[in-house]
Amino acid sequence: MSFGGVSEAGGRLAMLAERVGARLVERGETVAVAESSAGGLIAAALLAVPGASRFFLGGAVVYTVNAREGLLGISAEDMMGLRSSSEPYAQLLAARVQARLGASWGLAETGAAGPSGNRYGDPAGHSCMAVAGPRSSVATLRTGDADRAANMQVFAAAALEQLAAALDG
Description:
The chain is of the alpha/beta class. It has helices at about 5-25, 40-45, 65-70, 85-100, 150-169; strands spanning about 30-35, 55-60, 105-110, 125-130, 135-140. The protein has five helices and five strands; from the N terminus they run H-E-H-E-H-H-E-E-E-H. Helix 2 (about 40-45) links the parallel strand 1 (about 30-35) and strand 2 (about 55-60). It starts with 6 loop residues before the first helix and ends with a helix.
């Protein structure tokens, strides 16, 4: 499997997705995904796993305010004191997608893939990821790279690694 023409990264995504999928099936649990800068790669990796319908409830690419409001029902009021591309926002995304889809786990990613940073001052290669569920966690990653496609791959893999760690926890 190759995502974005980066076969090594695509192979890593496939391996992580298979690991996560197997653990979710083993546990009888499900996941829902809200991603931004990963652009759907997290969901695509999970859906590429045979039998994904046993553990994957759905996902959303929450790339704009309209998507945030329309897909996850996150209002301007919900965003008071928050900004995109931050750990608290990633936590909100993960919790909201988990609740809206009735999943055991919510997984979220938000950041700046590149080639430039975002309007909040975060550089290209900045991403925040969160897991909501029986074990919740949040993390920030900075690749130091402006390569958009490569960052998207790294963000997706890091989010899946974070979920795998929560599942193994």
